[in-house]
Structure formats: structure tokens, C-alpha cells
Amino acid sequence: MMNMILNLLLMPIVTAAICAIAGRRQAMEKINAVGSLFTFLAGMVAVYSVFKNGPISEYNLLYADAISAFMVLLITLIGLAVSIYSIGYMGREADSAVISLKQLRIYYTLLHAFIFTMLLVVVSDNLGVMWIAIEATTLASAFLVGLYNDKQAVEAAWKYIITCTVGITLALLGTILIYTSSVAEFGETSNALNWSFLIESAAKLDPTLVKLAFIFIIVGYGTKAGLVPMHSWLPDAHSQAPTPVSALLSAVLLNSAMYGIIRYHLIATKALGTAFSGNLLMAFGILSIVAASFLILMQKEYKRLLAYSSVEHMGIIALGIGFGGWLGILGAFLHMFNHAIAKSLMFFSAGYLKLGYHTREMAEVKGAMQAMPYVGAMLLLGTFAITGSPPFAMFLSEFSILAAGFQSDHFIAGALFLLSIVAVFCGFLYHIGGMVFGEAPQHVKKLQLETDTTLVLAALLLLSALLGFYVPGPMMQMIQQIAAIMGVGA
Amino acid sequence: MPYQNLLGLLAIMILVFAIMMLSHRRPKSCIPLYAAQSLSLALVAGIVAYTRGISGLYISAALIVLIKAIAIPKGMSHIIDKIGVDREVDIPVGIRTSLLICGMLVVLSYYVVQPFIAAFESPLARLLPIAMSVLLIGFFLMVSRRTAIMQLLGLLIMENGIFLTAMSVTYGMPLIVELGIFFDVLIATLIIGLMVFRINSTFDSIDTAHLRSLKG
Amino acid sequence: MPALASIALQATAVLLLAPLIKGINRKAKARLQGRHGAGVLQPYYELVKLMKKDSVVSETTSWIFASAPYASFAAMIVAGLIVPIFTTDLAAGAAGDFIALVYLFAMARLFVALAALDAGSSFGGMGSSREMTLSALAEPALLMSVFVVAVSAGTTSIGAMSSYVAGLGLDAIPPAYALAFVAFMIIAFAETGRIPFDNPATHLELTMIHEAMILEYSGKQLALIEWASSIKQLLIMALAINLFLPWGIATQAAAPMALAGSLIIFIAKLTLLSVMIAAIESSTAKWRLFRVPNLLILSIVLSALALISYYTGGV
Lengths: 490, 216, 315
What we know:
The structure holds three protein chains of three kinds. By secondary structure, chain A is mostly helical. Chain A has a domain at about 295-490. Chain A has helices at about 5-20, 25-55, 65-95, 100-125, 125-145, 150-185, 195-200, 205-225, 235-240, 245-270, 275-295, 300-325, 325-355, 370, 375-385, 395-405, 410-435, 450-470, 475-485, and strands at about 55-60, 60-65. A two-stranded antiparallel sheet of chain A has the order 1-2. Chain A is globular. By secondary structure, chain B is mainly alpha-helical. Chain B contains seven helices and no strands. Chain B has helices at about 5-20, 25-50, 55-85, 95-115, 130-145, 150-170, 175-205. By secondary structure, chain C is mostly helical. Chain C has one domain (about 5-310). Chain C contains eleven helices and no strands. In chain C, helix 1 (about 5-30) crosses helix 3, helix 1 (about 5-30) packs across helix 9 (about 220-245) and helix 6 (about 160-165) runs parallel beside helix 9 (about 220-245). The N and C termini of chain C lie far apart (about 40 Å). The chains are: A mainly alpha, B mainly alpha, C mainly alpha. Chains in contact: A-B, B-C.
């Protein structure tokens, strides 16, 4: 099965192309679902191959090792969930004439193009191609964010594209610096920018250049990953975008940007030791966590609340990577996965809140349990999932990172982390509880969810719960492989 | 390295064009300056390609001329004409202060970059402070101007600065990466251009001061 | 060649060339604007005409009004002796360097401005205040723009600077000179009162800067003042040419043939520069007074950058 990665990448492109020319809405929706399914299957094939046989390398440009495989799993899974959810949600938006058929077509086309760009990020070997792919994710999702075309959506889309492009331009500087250090040592070979080549010989790279490069990378890609203080675009973009897009942005895009940082972090640790890049990651991580927890307490709109929660969780992942060690790595990667699932669940439920209540303000949403029992229940259980209460999966990953912090003697960071999680838990319960309980206002329509939507929501919730009890063997083994790449014994 | 002085001269011209763009109020008069700056950049690429024998850079130079010196300026003029917004926009920072800040940014980048030049082996490394200044000036333009078109221009100037940086430390990146970057810049400009139209049709102005309603 | 003859030759050249520059500039502007324009020698005829006329002098003026034309003219002649025209080996070169030149310009400007105030008319006062405002920025900018050349030549004597630059090969010229040249040209426009700083052909008093100051003058005094301002224009352009693009100039006041050749090359460069200035003038309108300092600050920033880039040994 040669060219697995290429096949994987082709799926979403083909889906996007067909959606662009499809005539009727039904056709688009079916193609969208089928395309996602194929993407998921192709992803599974590639993941299985990497799991069993080790890294794949194609055309000297594409490369998939355990980290890539993990990300591919994440992207394709959430992509599938989003595609199925979109049929119901965007279908309702089209029915109530909030968006036109043309906008729906743009939506589905760009959705799959967006998934393609994110997949490209995690399977590129050449760091330059990875840069191009990350920039492409901004470009592909800009119009998705501004889809509703009202004043706030346009503002959000503008801030998104400008802030992220500036950040990514800085990351380009970092890429150039890494290339310089590679060329200075080894000359202009054809794989001078390939990660697989650089990681082998990282110890010989000029430390000054690698340091400079990493600083630019963490600021640049960190803008895309939503690390404080470069996160200003995030609440706007995630709250104004259509709900399925918000889920993709929060659950997948931020992780892809973090993936970019991790790749450079690996090179930096080989070249400089763990202290430099690990400390930077920890600093940004704890800053994001603390800032986000404050902002969560002050929120007034529920989608912005979820957006700031994403900022916090990205901070947690950065903190975990920064702490390092087996527990840190285990926690960080599990957290990526768990956050993706739980955040998607929350966004999906919140989407129906918006459809029923026609408002984004939390103060105006009351009695969801009464008006939409299924959605209300999902929202409540999802809150527990996302704030890291047992028995849900986030508890395990957050605990793991906390333990890693204390194990590596970073007591202050660990304490701040703990305090912030508690604050966020209280804040979320307060806000969501206010929305779920109580009397529903009269004008709220009682929505009947389609079967596929209910199934998706249930599946996500169950997955989150399941992973809280038991991390499947293959997944644990994959994370062990990842830890091996990151130079950490199990 | 031969033509060193000519390259230095071209680099300085690129910087001068960036500063001059900061001293103009009307977006339309900045566009020929951007085209001239991109042309100088293409010349730099061409000369480096000629003296180092890197054939990939010829393609880069040609692309710069086509995309940055012809297509993008034409596109931007088209947008400005369509929107009809060539007014003098109120600039928060003021032109005189902007110019002085430009000077300070150049001094800053010389001061910061000078110690690192030794770490680079390329003979063009002395151009690095100039490239960083262009980057900083582009960033400053983005931050200090409120018209959406000028923010796009600042972004484009930053891209030019990055290309000059790549020239000065590594004679340019591998061809496939360069091609990808050009493509990205082109699509980004297109999308931002379309976005400017959207802003104009939604807000009836491209003053980004209107884009301040989402807070918190 | 004996020093006195050389000085006389230079002074004559300056006096005779000055109106020619004015004429070329006007003719080029006219052509670019689609008109025929007066002949290139028209300024000469104007000077002769003015010399033959009587002057009308206001009774409320003082000795400043009477002496300003002579002071200004004298300053310009002396300035003409220390700027290289067709040779860098100036007999009077030791009399003053670049800073002295700037001060000579300032002296001329001072007298004319005071004279304008002396006449007591409001237009004169307005012109003076505008002129002084602009010169407050333009003079330091003028000084700074030549600093790079002065620093690299190790001297502020204009003749020595010019021969230093002439001695550099084309590939040894620091690119910082290009920045300094751009800065200098901006100041050249300011000092000679070209568009966009001032419109020399305007009839509207409210838009005048230089013209407003000389409204009260007539007859011989007016001729002297006009001549002095043409000489200033010539000198500024000579500085631009001979400090930044001096190749072809005679570096020793030796054989008459060499001097003649140098003179011809100089006139050719001068014509070219005049036409370029006319082209730039024709392509823009006079700016509002409050926007003009922006341009001057741009010039100062460029000069500072030239110095920085020269000093950091980089470019």
C-alpha cells in the first residue's frame, strides 16, 4: 500500500472539489459525509501502518511517525463528527434562510479544504511545507469564520486573518533561521529542511540560531495555537464562526499549531537540552492557563466561554510538554485528544442552544433542560467532561500533567495550575448551570434533534467517559512510541 | 563577493521605499512605492542568483516581479478604485512621529542584530539589520494605520522583509518552499482583498476603527 | 593659474550660469506642461530690464531694506567661491567649508527676511515667518545630509569632499551615499523654493513664501535679489552634482583645456538635473504648509540612517 499518506491527503481534496460543483443540497450533504468517512478510513489505514511498521516517508516531503499518526487520528475523527453534525446544523441554518445555498456550498467546500490543510500540517516532513500548510489553514478557514457575513462575523474574520498571518510570518523567520543553521552545518542538501533529517543531527546545529528560531516559532505558531498573549483573535473567531467550524477550530486547528511547536521543541531539546524550550513552553502555558481562567469567570457569551476554555486547555498542553517526562508527555497528548472530544461535544450542544434561543448571551438562555432535554443533559455532562471531573477523560490527563509538574519540582507552576482548574470548574458550573436549569422563556422553540446528531453527541460523550476509565492498549502503545520519539522512557 | 555594493544599495533602496510608504497618507500613492520595492527585491534575487549560480533564484526573481511588482499592485489599485476610498485617513500616530519611530526602529534593529551577524556565514549577512528594519517597519505600518488596505500593505512589506532576510542569511530557501510561500502570499492577498470588500459592504467604510465591537 | 584669476573665473562662471539654470528649469517645466514657454535666455533679459528701471522705496523702511539686496548678493558670490563648479581645487577654498556655506545661505536669508518685515506689509511678514519656519528644519537637514560624505572624506571642505568622492571608483561608493543623496535632494527642493515647498511662479500672495518676502523690491535691488536666488539655486545643484556625482570634474586648476572640458561636463549634468527637477515639480502640486515638515523630517531620518549604516560598517 504505497502512497498511503498521499491517498489520505487526496480524500478531502476530492470531497471539496465535488462539493464545489454539486448541485443540490442533498447531494452536497451526502458527499460531505461519505468523503469524511473515506478520509477517516484512509487515516486509519495510515495510522495502523505507522503503528505496526514504524514511520512512513514519501517523496522526501511527507513523513508520518507516531506523533503524526496520533494527530491524523484526531483530525479525521473530529472531521467525521463535524461533517455529520454539519448536515443537521447547517441544514437548519439553510432552512431558516440564515445562509443561502451558495453559502452552504462554500461552507462544505471550504470545510474539506480546511481538513486537507490540517492533515498536510501533520504529515509534512519539510518544515517549509509545514509552514505553508499552517498558513493555508488560516486562509482556508478565514471565509468559514466570516460565513454569516454580518458585522461581527466580518470583524472576527478580519482580526483572525490579520493576526494569524502576522504570527505565521514571524514563524517563517524561525523556519528560515533553522534552515540557515542546517545549511551552515551540512550544506544545501535536498533534505536540509526535513524534520526527519534535522532530528538526527540536531546536536550539531548552532545553538544561538536554534534558540532564536525557537523563540520566533513559539511566538509565531503560538499565535495560531492561541497561547496568551497572542490569543486575541481566538474568542472572536471561535464565537462568530458557525458552530461546526468553531468545533474544528478549537478541537483540531489549535492542536495542529501546537504540533508545529512540538516538532521544533524536539529539535531544540536535541540541540540545547530540555531547559530552554521546555521553560518557554511552561511559561506560555501557565500564562495562558491563568489568564484564561480569569477571563472565563467574566464571560457573558457562551461561545466565547468555550473559546477561552480552549485557550486554557492549549496552555495545559503546553505546560505538559514543558514539564516533560513520561507523565507530562502522556498527559499532554491524551489531553489533546480528550479536549478535542469534549470541546466538540460542548460546541455541538451550544450550537443547538443558539438555534433554539437565537442569542449568544448567557444571561438570556435559561432552562435548557426544560426546553431541549437532550441538549441540556449533554451540556451539563459535557461541562463535567471539559472541566476535568472524574470519571471523564480530562481528569486523567490533567492529573497526569499535574503529577509531572510536581515530579519535576515545578511546584509553583503546579499550584497555579491546580488553582486555575478549580476556578474554571466553578466558573463553568456557574455559567452553564445558569443556562441549563430554571424556567425556559416562552419564545424558545422545542427542537427535535435528528438521529445522526443525537448519535454524534452521544458517541462523543461516551468516548470521553470511556477514555476516563481505560485508555485502550493500542492508544497507550502509540503514546509510548511518541514518548520514545520525544526521548523519554516509559 | 562581487556586486556587494550594488546589493547594499538595493537593500537600502528597499528600506527607503518602506519608510517613504510610511510618510504617505493616501493608500493609492503607496502602491507604486511597493511595486518599486518589490522590483528592487527581485533585482537582489537576480544578482544573487547570477553570482552564486543558484538557478532556482531566477524563478523566484521572476515570480517576485510578476506577483509582487505587477499583479498585487494592480489588484490593490483595483480594490481602491472600486471602493473609492482614496481619502486621506486620519492617522493615529501622525506622520512626523511615524517617521521618527521608523528611524528608531532602524537603530533598534541594528543594535539588536549586529552581535548576531558573526553567527552567519553568508557574506550578505551585513544586510540582515536592513532586512529586520523592513520587517519592523512593515509591522509598525500595520499597527499604526487604521485603513484595512494599509494593514494589508504592512503585511506585504513584512513579507518583503522576510524574503530579504532569507536572501541575506541563506541565499534563499529551497525552491519548492519558495514557490509555496509565493503561492501563500498571493492567496493571502486575494483573500484579504476580498475581505476588504466585505468590510466595505458591511460597514460602508474600510476604517478598522469600526471593527472594535467584539470585546472581552 | 594664479589664484586671483581662478577666483575671478569662478565668480564669473557663477554669475553667468545662474540665470541660465533658472531659464532651463522654466523651459523644461513649460514643455512638460504642454506649453512652449519663454526662451532659455529669458532670465538674462529680465535682469537687464530690471537693471534699467528705477526703484521705488517705501519711506518707512530702514537701512536693512536698503542693504539686504547687496548683503544677499555678496553672500551668494562668496558662497559661489567655495563651492566646486568646474574644479575641486578652489583658490578660495580655504575661506570656508560646508558649514560656512550653510551659514552664508543663512545670512542671505536673514537679511531678506528682515527686509520683508522692515517694509511693514503683512504679506512680507507672512513670507518671513513661513521662510523661517521652514528653514528651522531645512538647515539642520541640509547639514546632516552631507555628513556621511564629510565623515568618509574626513573633512568638511567642499572641494576636498568632492575630490575624495571623485577619486572613489564606482564599486567603492558606500550605498549610504544613495540615502544621503535622496535626503539632500529633498532639502535642495526646500532651499531653492521648488514645488512642493513653494511655487516660484505663483501670483497669489497667500501661497507665496520666497516671493512674498521680495514683494516690496523693484528695479536694481530686485534684480540683485533675483540674481542672488538664482545663484543659490545654481550652488545647491552644484553641490548635488559635485558632492555625489562628481566624475569628470577637474581636480586641479591647471590647464585651461581641462577646465573647459570640466565646465562643459558640469553644464551638461546641470541641464540634466534641472530637467529632472522640473519633471518632479510638474508632477505634483504645492503642499499645504503644515505638511511640508513631514518631508523635511523624512530627509532628516534618511540622513540619520545614512550615517548609521555607514558607521556600523555594514552597508
